[in-house]
């Protein structure tokens, strides 16, 4: 019998496995998350703060995310499938399932292996390091960072009353908190520029400390060592509000300057 013929099947199986592993899109998707968002950032800019989607239904879509609550009542942090409010005093409380949100984004926990982040001096430097991990700039990414923060600057907003002002009139009166030597988590997303008007383009993070007592919308931070997990989102889902406030809102036009004003 030809000994070379005997070896061919095992070699073919090996090549087939390599091809399947590296070129099968289904295996790529195994390292991805699905992304769900309720409403749009332009609607929030317009003052559409009426909560509609319940937290119970929101948490059916994922385990990690961010947003806000009815009447813009604080910053939302979702972690480990639990939803927390950071109020205008910077304090954290877990919310009930029947509370509602006018805007939120949520995904599955990133499935990738964690990577280390070293000597981060500012939010800008953090963005530069994360940019190296955004392999496809046309996808949304879910990002989870854990670190012992040397410094961290965050904000929350005050609950609003009707008639609701646009978000650009709310943030000048925001409450700002500065923390030092605090361990915690940053949860957030990176969204491509072409999602402008729907999502916040670029990076958007909310913070919560390990004791679940303090948090807010991230403005700045520094740390010596942290870990990050990042996953692309190939499946993107959106649900829009059914209320009259959303129906009457003017959502047209590019508003990147307003987004930068309220998010940074």
UniProtKB/TrEMBL annotation:
The superkingdom listed in its UniProt entry is: Bacteria
Q: Which reaction does it catalyse?
A: (2S)-2-acetolactate + H(+) = (R)-acetoin + CO2
The top EC class is lyase
InterPro entries listed in its UniProt record:
Acetolactate_a_deCO2ase
GO biological process terms on file: acetoin biosynthetic process
Pfam family membership, one: AAL_decarboxy
Pathway field: Polyol metabolism; (R,R)-butane-2,3-diol biosynthesis; (R,R)-butane-2,3-diol from pyruvate: step 2/3
**Which keywords are on file for this protein?**
Acetoin biosynthesis, Decarboxylase, Lyase
Q: Which family does it belong to?
A: Belongs to the alpha-acetolactate decarboxylase family.
Q: Which NCBIfam families match?
A: acetolac_decarb
What name does this protein carry?
Alpha-acetolactate decarboxylase
């Amino acid at each position: 019998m030809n000994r070379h013929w005997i070896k061919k099947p095992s070699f073919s199986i090996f090549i087939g496995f390599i091809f399947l592993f590296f070129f099968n899109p289904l295996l790529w998707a195994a390292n991805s998350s699905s992304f769900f968002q309720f409403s749009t950032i332009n609607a929030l800019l317009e003052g559409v703060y009426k909560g509609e989607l319940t937290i119970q239904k929101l948490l059916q879509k994922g385990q990690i995310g961010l947003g806000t609550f009815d009447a813009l009542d604080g910053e939302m942090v979702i972690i480990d499938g639990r939803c927390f409010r950071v109020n205008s005093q910077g304090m954290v409380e877990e919310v009930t399932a029947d509370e509602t949100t006018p805007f939120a984004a949520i995904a599955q926990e990133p499935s990738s292996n964690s990577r280390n982040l070293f000597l981060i001096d500012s939010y800008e430097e953090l963005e530069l390091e994360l940019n190296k991990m955004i392999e496809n700039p046309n996808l949304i990414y879910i990002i989870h960072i854990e670190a012992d923060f040397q410094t961290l600057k965050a904000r929350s907003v005050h609950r609003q009353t009707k008639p609701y002002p646009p978000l650009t009139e709310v943030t000048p009166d925001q409450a700002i908190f500065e923390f030092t030597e605090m361990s915690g988590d940053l949860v957030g997303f990176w969204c491509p520029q072409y999602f402008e008007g729907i999502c916040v383009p670029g990076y958007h993070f909310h913070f919560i400390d390990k004791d679940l007592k303090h948090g807010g919308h991230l403005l700045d931070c520094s740390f010596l060592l942290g870990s990050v997990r990042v996953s692309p989102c190939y499946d993107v889902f959106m649900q829009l509000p059914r209320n009259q406030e959303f129906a009457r809102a003017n959502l047209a036009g590019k508003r990147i300057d307003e987004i930068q004003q309220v998010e940074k």
